[in-house]
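Human: Here is a favour to ask of a fellow structure person. Comparing notes only helps if you start from a blank page. Give me a protein, with the fold worked out from its sequence. Please set it down just below, with no commentary around it:

Assistant:
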Amino acid sequence: MKQLSAILAACLLLYVQAFAADKKPNIVLIMADDLGYETIGANGGTSYNTPNIDKLASTGVRFEHCYAQPLCTPSRVQMMTGIYNVRNYVEFGTLDRAQTTFAHLLKKQGYATCIVGKWQLGKEPDSPQHFGFDEACLWQHTRKSTRKLDTRYVNPQLEINGKPVDYTRGEFAPDLTNDFVCQFIEKNKDKPFFAYYPMILTHCPFVPTPDSPDYDPKSKGSPTYKGDPKYFGDMVAYMDKEVGKIIAKLDSLGLRENTLVIFTGDNGTDVPIVSMMNGKRVAGGKGQSTDAGTRVPLIANWPGVVKKGVVSHDLVDFTDFLPTLCEAAGAIVPTDLKIDGRSFLQQLRGEKGQPREWVYSWYSPKGGPAAKREFVRNQRYKLYTSGELFDISNDVLEKKPITTPNPEETQIRETLQNALDQFKDARPPALTKP
């Protein structure tokens, strides 16, 4: 009898181990709005309090060279499709409805999917569902403010699964969207889920949060587009608090060990904001192609899978998120999508992986036939189609292009030029018309 019990116990253990190995991980992708690399404490930032994000970094992997597009819609399109803007970016505020997103691919793999926060990818009522999301709680989907004021923060005007909802009792939109994510997680705790959370914070207008002494629950919105930059620190702290709430929800449901959490920002910090990082002043550069506009935080955390306290110097750009999430989920990326991204999942596991030699950017704020700025870069050097080559490590603001390159820089220029040449005719003919 004891021998039979031992055999049954061994069989049960093997079954549990096999089930655990085959169990798909949950994925939570959090993207703060207008939050540059310099704002996070783990990156050397000293102006703001980000303890929850810093803890994710100290117990996970922190990347020092992640690059977004300089503006929100271009970054979102690139992240969701895994394709460089040169191939599929149509216009600001729009995602071409012919595109396949990471939500499509994960949903096909059996994932419950949701998107929560800021949309800005098309005003069709079915847009979120069309792009693969089962549920949605969004600001700036189909609606325009009825108050002639910005309605993304206090007493917001949102849309929940396509239905307009107005709040008038002092609610704060980041709390509402965060609660929606947590409810989605709880509702789907027994099956794999993908929560994409492009946060409303920390985009202007810069306003008090519920943790600010002068928070006004009767406010109908900021009277100015920018608001007051003095509140930016409060907004960063509140953004970090919302991240902490999601981690706490995962912990309380016993899901943390099987959940990959990724945190990043969609572009650089807004222009009025000046922050301190490693003893230096860093002015926000949203909309610019410099590091201040494109370098963003990237932190990945997955207990037991992602190595603790690793700092990666590998290059990552926003095309890389789609293949990384798909590899983690066991989802196949169809070859006919011809994505530009490459997975960095192996680096998260502490393996070498296939790190990039360069990242590419085709940046046009409003779309159109040509880029405003186009460049290729590695960790140190950046080459524009204008022919200007910059040593970013010694010229982060790109004030003085290299005019007399040394032999090593000549070789680097050639390598980067070869990369640029790959995209000479990449713009589809249908998108080259003015």
In short: The radius of gyration is 22 Å. The first helix runs from residue 2 to 22.
